[in-house]
Design brief:
mainly alpha
Amino acid sequence: MTKLQLIQAEIESLTSDEFLYLRNWINNLDDQQWEKQIEEDSIAGKLDFLI
C-alpha cells in the first residue's frame, strides 16, 4: 500500500468532526499556499499585465 493509499484509508476512518477539521485545515493550507504564490508572482513581475 502506498503512502497516499494509507492516508486515504485513514481519512475514510475519521469521524465527521475529525473530517470537518481536516477539510478546514486543508482549505486554509491551500489558501496560504495560493497567497504565497500570488505574492511571489507579483514580486517576479508575472502579474504586471494586470495593472
